[in-house]
Specification:
It is a peripheral membrane protein. GO terms for molecular function: ATP binding; ATP hydrolysis activity; ATPase-coupled polar amino acid-transporter activity. It is a single chain. This protein is α/β, with parallel strands linked by helices and 245 residues long. Helix content is 39%, strand content 26%. The protein contains nine helices and ten strands. The chain has helices spanning 45-52, 74-83, 99-109, 115-128, 144-156, 174-189, 201-207, 225-230, 235-244; strands spanning 5-16, 19-30, 34-38, 60-65, 68-69, 84-87, 162-166, 193-197, 210-215, 218-223. Helix 6 (174-189) links the parallel strand 7 and strand 8. It is globular. The mean pLDDT is 94. The structure holds adenosine-5'-diphosphate and magnesium ion. The site of magnesium ion (MG) has 3 residues, from helix 1.
């Protein structure tokens, strides 16, 4: 596939003290592409995600979004965080705000929409994630799967160029995993550019354009799901798959 790059990491390195957590990372995510990142715990998957919307700084290398280097601070940084939405394992909703307010808040603050306009967009998106009737409730009144779908609606409300998901279903009870993956599959089908850290291999197989396997801070494999799951090249990946499949 001819790739129109949206996210590009070149020779990215980062340490935490003596730990070389990201080592010479080169990764391109094309517009509309879904890249699933897998790998053992501690391999640097979350750190990699967090560098892309600059929740983490890097020591060397470059990261570009839509051809432009990531900004360091100020308004540009706030705009970047809106352009590259992030969905975490812990949903991070505001407990004292309604579902509707959770989805509307940043639209007003960051995107400078009028409240009415923001609420209209929020209702539309809540409908899209199957939560049209939950708008007046508070997060604690919702199940984990519903809360995570609110978090996805909130990220979508910013009209992001890309969405990053860091283990979005890891904190959920098993019966709620599918309702969240289903929303993510729909986003992928609608052409959203997505980077997804997950242990859900079914999702990787069915929704990913590419699977990136990380170990010890490096990208060890970067291939189509079919290639990766049928014939992993590295011993590390074979060993990892043998433990989780
Ligand atoms: P993964 O998401 O693949 O489990 P992480 O990116 O969270 O891996 O972490 C990679 C490594 O970096 C781990 O060894 C972790 O302990 C370490 N690490 C992560 N965040 C920090 C931090 N803020 N300070 C020091 N070490 C960290
Ligand atoms: Mg992690």
């Amino acid at each position: 596939m001819a790739v129109d790059p949206l996210i590009e990491l070149r020779d990215v390195n980062k340490h935490y003290g003596a730990l070389h957590v990201l080592q010479d990372i080169n990764l391109t995510v094309g517009r509309g592409e879904v890249v699933v990142i897998i790998g053992p715990s501690g391999s640097g998957k979350s750190t990699l995600c967090r560098t892309i919307n600059r929740l983490e700084t890097i020591e060397s290398g470059t990261i570009r979004l839509d051809g432009k280097p990531l900004p360091d601070e100020g308004k540009e940084l706030a705009a970047l965080r809106a352009d590259v939405g992030m969905v975490f394992q812990s949903f991070n909703l505001f407990a004292h705000k309604t579902v509707l307010a959770n989805v509307s808040l940043a639209q007003v603050k960051v995107r400078k929409r009028k409240k009415d306009e923001a609420d209209k967009r929020s209702r539309e998106l809540l409908g899209r994630v199957g939560l049209a009737d939950q708008a007046p409730k508070y997060p604690a009144q919702l199940s984990g799967g519903q809360q995570q779908r609110v978090a996805i609606a909130r990220a979508l409300a910013m009209n992001p160029k890309a969405l990053l998901f860091d283990e979005p279903t890891s904190a959920l009870d098993p019966e709620m995993i599918n309702e969240v993956l289903e929303v993510m599959r729909q986003l992928a089908a609608d052409g959203m550019t997505m980077v997804v850290v997950t242990h859900e291999m079914g999702f990787a197989r069915s929704a990913a354009n590419r699977v990136v396997f990380m170990a010890d801070g490096r990208i060890v494999e970067d291939r189509t799901p079919e290639e990766f799951f049928t014939a992993p090249e590295s011993e590390r990946a074979r060993d990892f798959l043998s433990k989780i499949l």
